[in-house]
Amino acid sequence: MHQEIEEVLVTEEEIIEKCAEIGKQLTEEYDGKFPLAIGVLKGAMPFMSDVLRRVDTHLEMDFMAVSSYGGGTRSSGEVKIIKDLDAKVEGRHVLIIEDIIDSGLTLSYLVDLFKYRKAASVKIVTLIDKPEGRTVDIKADVVGFELPNKFLVGYGLDYDEKYRNLPYIGVLKPEIYSEQES
Ligand code: PRP
Ligand code: MN
Ligand code: MG
Fold first, then answer.
1. Is a pLDDT exceeding 70 seen at residue 74?
2. Is residue 129 within 6 Å of ligand 1 at its C-beta?
3. Which ligand is nearest to the CA of 75?
4. Is the pLDDT of residue 34 over 70?
5. Which of 17, 72, 98, 146 is the most core-located residue (most Cβ within 10 A)?
6. Taking the CB of residue 30, how many other CB atoms lie within 10 A of it?
């Protein structure tokens, strides 16, 4: 698996350190507010697990599964809800947890949805931001790492459902995805 990675951009140690920093920030921001932390499956799973264990105040965890990429390397532009929340959003302080913002389509869809459902507040925490990929105007409130517009995998990020279990964030060798898409 590791030999399919061209370059490691963020190491496991850097991720863990960043999770501690963000966890502390969220603790201060949400203390006493009992936020509804919403993980966007599947990509957000490792980050959500690591960052929320560093938040030292009560919170509720829920999950939404959406997909816009299918099996390919490019967004289809269409966001599909695969699993909706169990919790009611009305009146809640919603904290969306994402692994990455690229085009921004997934998050702008979710922010609009939670506002429509009358959240008291909606904030976004993302481990990675790829600002060059943006096609809609949206910004995260908390960003772990800003990275260049390369095809990233690992720590939740997949290519064709693989590499999510890598402990770091890396760049996939182009021959791995061109083999299947050319
Ligand atoms: C990926 C990633 C983000 C989204 C970001 O999810 O996890 O949720 O794309 O891209 P965008 O800003 O261009 O919308 P994907 O749809 O691949 O589903 P997954 O999390 O199950 O991999
Ligand atoms: Mn995702
Ligand atoms: Mg994906």
1. no
2. no
3. 1
4. yes
5. 98
6. 19
pLDDT at position 77 is 65
Q: How confident is the model at residue 67 (pLDDT cuts 50, 70, 90)?
A: confident
Among this protein's residues, is 158 annotated catalytic? no
Tell me if ipTM is over 0.95.
yes
| Residue to mutate, 66, 79, 100, 125, ligand 1, most ligand atoms under 8 Å from C-beta | 100
Q: Which of 102, 137, 158, 160 is catalytic?
A: 102
Ordered structural domains, the chain, with CATH: 18-150 (3.40.50.2020)
Q: Is 104 in the pocket of ligand 1 (CB under 6 A)?
A: yes
Kindly report each contact of residues 9-14 with a partner whose C-beta sits within 8 Å and lies 24 or more positions away, as own/partner.
9/145, 9/147, 9/150, 9/152, 9/169, 9/170, 9/171, 10/128, 10/145, 10/147, 10/155, 10/168, 10/169, 11/168, 12/167, 12/168, 14/145
Mutate to test the pocket of ligand 1, among 64, 69, 75, 103 (most ligand atoms within 8 A of CB): 69
